[in-house]
């Protein structure tokens, strides 16, 4: 009889070897060689890695260790490479199908609204191809030129939509005119979330990167909590949705926008993604059956994300625990945002119910 401890020890010993094997295989692939490699070798590496991960994930109690996480990331990448490099009839193919196009739809905001979740949910759709990283073209790298931007995009076939997400676009003054200069018919998606929670989420992110950061309260108000709200602090400023939208409406008609509720994206992901698919003119393929609620994470997760056969939640930086903020401070911020929220509801024609 193999005991659980035995089983785990055996597979744990195989972990470094498998990771080494996978690293070698993926380096090989990145130089373009795996297209001519014996498929049996490369696929055996991935298969072995996938099985190992599956077993260790179920055996391991509590949080996964670092090497397990590294193996998981390596495999996601490896599975993606294999997916790209091998056609269904088993013949190796080069990644030259389709062409790189400018995005027809962009998730332009808002920071901490739930933009990563929405993009990952949409990527499940076979007619959506999206850039994984945030390119920041229209706000940071505009001088690199449009061809640089187009070249970053994944290849698409006819009928597929190219997408990217950069949440800072919504609040950068120059972005609307620059984006319109590229294509004024680009569809614009904005995931909005209660500006008060969004500000706390933004602060929480900065806090993880900057230990010793002053308190939320001291940054949100000009003097003490009795003072006025400091709208020049970016965590507060980003939540002035009506003001940012006004800037966009100088260049794009309202019909170019879809406003997604960050709250509903958590409580009813299939419903919100359904609206987005309609807006993009896509068949409603991503639906209830693609999601499950992970009670440990406290968020909906995907049963089968793009390029992977395992269920997956977003990473640790999504769905962080927020530090406690006094109800008095939250109240004052809520009062501050109320008129801006009402204006935003009027402009967008949607009531997000934040008050
Ligand atoms: N399914 C799912 N899983 C995990 N997290 C989810 C999900 N749906 C929405 N969210 C919320 O997304 C918030 C992060 O937003 P963004 O991805 O837009 O952040 S970022 O601007 O790209 O940094 C993140 O904010 P925090 O909770 O403050 O971490 C989440 O509340």
TrEMBL record:
Xref: SUPFAM superfamilies: P-loop containing nucleoside triphosphate hydrolases
UniProt family annotation: Belongs to the sulfotransferase 1 family.
Keywords assigned: Disulfide bond, Glycoprotein, Golgi apparatus, Membrane, Signal-anchor, Transferase, Transmembrane, Transmembrane helix
UniProt protein name: Sulfotransferase
Localisation per UniProt entry: Endomembrane system; Golgi apparatus membrane
Domain spans labelled Sulfotransferase: 103-338
Catalytic site positions: 112
Entries under Pfam families matching the protein: Sulfotransfer_1 (PF00685)
Bilayer disposition of the protein: Single-pass type II membrane protein
GO MF terms held by the record: [heparan sulfate]-glucosamine 3-sulfotransferase activity
Disulfide links within the chain: 301-313
Annotated 3'-phosphoadenylyl sulfate binding sites: 112-116, 193, 201, 318-322
Gene Ontology cellular-component annotations: Golgi membrane
Catalytic activity, EC: 2.8.2.-
Catalytic class of the enzyme: transferase
Taxonomic lineage of the native organism: Eukaryota, Metazoa, Chordata, Craniata, Vertebrata
């Amino acid at each position: 009889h193999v005991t659980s401890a035995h089983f785990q020890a055996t597979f744990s010993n195989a972990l470094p070897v498998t990771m080494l094997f996978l690293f070698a295989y993926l380096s090989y692939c990145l130089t373009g060689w795996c297209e001519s490699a014996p498929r049996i070798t490369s696929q055996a590496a991935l298969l072995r890695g996938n099985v190992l991960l599956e077993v260790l994930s179920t055996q391991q109690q509590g949080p996964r260790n670092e090497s397990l996480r590294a193996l998981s990331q390596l495999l996601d990448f490896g599975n993606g490479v294999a997916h790209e490099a091998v056609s269904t009839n088993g013949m190796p193919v080069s990644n030259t199908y389709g062409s790189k196009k400018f995005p027809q739809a962009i998730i332009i905001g808002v920071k901490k609204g739930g933009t990563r979740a929405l993009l990952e949910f949409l990527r499940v759709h076979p007619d959506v191809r999206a850039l994984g990283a945030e390119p920041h073209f229209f706000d940071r790298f505009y001088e690199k030129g449009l061809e640089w931007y187009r070249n970053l995009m994944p290849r698409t076939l006819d009928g597929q939509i190219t997408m990217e997400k950069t949440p800072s676009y919504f609040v950068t003054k120059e972005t609307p005119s620059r984006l319109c200069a590229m294509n004024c018919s680009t569809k614009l998606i904005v995931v909005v979330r209660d500006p008060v929670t969004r500000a706390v989420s933004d602060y929480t992110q900065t806090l993880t990167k900057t230990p010793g950061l002053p308190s939320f309260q001291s940054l949100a108000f000009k003097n003490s909590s009795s003072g006025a709200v400091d709208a020049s602090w970016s965590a507060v400023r980003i939540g002035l949705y009506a003001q940012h939208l006004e800037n966009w409406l100088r260049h794009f008609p309202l019909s170019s926008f879809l406003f997604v509720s960050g709250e509903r994206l958590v409580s009813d992901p299939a419903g919100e993604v359904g609206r987005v698919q309609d807006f993009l003119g896509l068949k409603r393929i991503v639906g209830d059956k693609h999601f499950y609620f992970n009670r440990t994470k406290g968020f909906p997760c995907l049963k089968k994300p793009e390029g992977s056969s395992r269920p997956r939640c977003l990473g640790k930086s999504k769905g962080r625990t927020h530090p406690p903020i006094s109800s008095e401070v939250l109240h004052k911020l809520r009062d501050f945002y109320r008129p801006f929220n009402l204006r935003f509801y009027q402009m967008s024609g949607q009531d997000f119910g934040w008050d």
